[in-house]
Amino acid sequence: MTISVLNPNSSLAEVVSAEKALIRKVAWRLMPLIMVCYLFAFFDRINISFAKFQLQTDLSLSDTAYGLGASLFVIGYVLFEVPSNIMLYKVGARRWIARIMISWGVATALMVFVNAEWQFYVLRFIIGAMEAGFAPGVLFYLTLWFPQTYRGRITSTLFLASAFAGLLGAPISGLVLGGMDGVMQMRGWHWLFLLGGLPCIALGFAVLKILKDRVADAHWLTDAEKTYLSSRIAQHEPNKHGGSLLTALKMPGFLMLGLIYFLIQVASYGLNFWAPQLIRSAGVESPVMIGLLTAIPYICGAISMVVIGRLSDASGERRKFVCGLVVLGAVGFFCAGIFAQHTSMLVLSLAMLGGGIVASIPAFWTLPPKLLAGAGAGAAGGIALINTLGQFGGIVSPVMVGHIKDITGSTTPALYVIGVSTVIAAGLLLWALPEKLRTLDKSHD
């Protein structure tokens, strides 16, 4: 069916059907590569949790030192994130995302040369700095290709990659750590970082070749499709080329979104960096079994993402769905603390936790573009800044959990602290956001 916004003979049903077909066409062209890239980006964040046991033994790291190394990744990420996204807006998403992937792939592979605590700290910081801007850059890139009313399911589709990173990465990491330890006189954790870094370099070059910066550059769309898609995207984004980061910063609700995302990330990093440790503390010793059980919360998160993404788009409701997922995650954290020594109940608690927290992140990311619509360059920088504010949770969470574990000998008190932080996030979502973020998204005006 030919799509034209100027065709007076098309019925609403025909327009809706043709629009959905066009969105599917764009999604199938862009999302597979973007999702693979995001899968490796997320695995780059969580692989340190699987390498933890061998890494700590080889480098004689305390839990606090491990938590500090995990946090230094986030510090590097935070310091360079906003400048990175401003550069993305200036030079184009295709070139900048490719640069990010190639540089972080090289830095991750260099982990094989780490043999001292200070080298671990330095390289973790560099990896974070090289990856800075990737996630918000991709989120901004998707706003250039998909209308607002489709972003719930598109964002959920993107973040499925993070669930698959845990789903596939956990058991594969267990196999690599156990099966490749000693191959070519390299430790299993060396192989883990090498196999996580080298594919990113190839993917960076694939991004350069395959992705396009704008709808107008897509040779695989007809002129009518380009016109229609651009008009639908522009409907909710007037004055797209104006604005600045300062404009975005002054918007009511902007800093509140940053605070909410910080609290969500405290929970997310608590799961990502400490789930294998929790399972091991419950009595599971096999690296392969730990990997398989660690995959369960990500399976639940993947299912939850798909279901909530579709329900959110169908209803136009964003805020309440995020709130409900955060509450589910809070219950999971409290239950994980209560059942810390009971393997089956702990895994069930982690499943609940994953279904809430893992899925809450893509659900949350339907809110900032809604607030920042029309901010132009400010949207790119604003999305990056919200992500940066949130990533401070990735600094606080690993150090806090590690320090509490060193002091008390248990992660349980930290789980309760994180559970309280997610309850606070739910309260802010319900009662502290401006009217612009309380309104429902509508499919057609």
Give a written overview of the molecule.
By secondary structure, the chain is mainly alpha-helical. The protein is built from 16 helices and no strands. The chain is globular, with a radius of gyration of 22 Å. The two termini are 22 Å apart.
* Binned strand content: under 5%
The H/E string reads HHHHHHHHHHHHHHHH
**Structure annotation, total helices:** 16
| Unreliable sequence segments | 1-6, 238-242
Gap between N and C termini: 22 Å
Write the layout of secondary structure elements.
Blueprint: H1 12-59, H2 63-91, H3 93-109, H4 117-131, H5 134-143, H6 151-179, H7 188-210, H8 223-234, H9 245-249, H10 254-281, H11 287-315, H12 319-338, H13 343-364, H14 367-372, H15 377-408, H16 412-431
Helix pairs in contact: 1-2, 1-6, 1-7, 1-10, 2-3, 2-4, 2-15, 3-4, 3-5, 3-7, 5-15, 6-7, 6-11, 6-13, 10-11, 10-13, 10-15, 10-16, 11-13, 12-13, 12-16, 15-16
List keywords for this structure.
mainly alpha; 16 helices; single chain
Short description:
By secondary structure, the chain is mainly alpha-helical. Helix content is 78%, strand content 0%.
